[in-house]
Amino acid sequence: MKLFRFNVLKQISTLKVRNYGVISDADYKHKQSSVIRNRIYAGELDIIMGQRFIDEYASETSAVKRAGLITKQAARRLYGEFVLKKELDGFNLNSFKIEAENLYKTLNLAITEGDLITLSNICTMKYMTEIKKYARQENKRRTKLKWELIKMEKTPSIVDVIVASFEGIKGNTELVAQITLMFNSKQRLTRMVGDANPVPVPFEPKDPIRDIIVFERYLKNPFDIWKIAGRMQKYIGE
User: Boundaries of each Tim44-like domain copy (predicted)?
Assistant: First the structure.
């Protein structure tokens, strides 16, 4: 089984990150469509490596080391949940899963429809640079691609919760949260093929698809929203 590779940052050993890619005062004055032009990716490596370790690469290290890393991840998640509940009124993970599932559906539809405006509203700028080329290609095609969610195999599960702090430009403490969810679903893609009398040609993978999605939000900015910051995908039967 193979995961698509991410280009990730150097591993972060604590929940602190240095002052690079900080939020400017001007960013605070904008509303949802233009918030946070300079995002940091505080826990990206921790998130991805944590999932790889617990999932298919666990056998590469000793049982003692595995136990230590899993314990560290559990403690980090508890801390992350505590901070999220403190900083965001009414936050709970079950409600977040519903919001995240809607974002997941919107992401797939927008990519296949080549809808760059929607993608820019729901994705971080970094992730937009990874997917906009494909979305533009779909937008230019004469035959459009249709994505359908047949069913979710089960409720999205939490892979990791990370909250990291960093020093703002005025010496204040900023907080960024990343929640990683795993989605298992049956999907179908359909493309209309032919010029004179186009016919639908569906492609439906036999096995469910597993998507691991990273969602990100700045907690000190009242106008920020959850956005998609990264994605890994594989067929469960691979």
Answer: 89-230
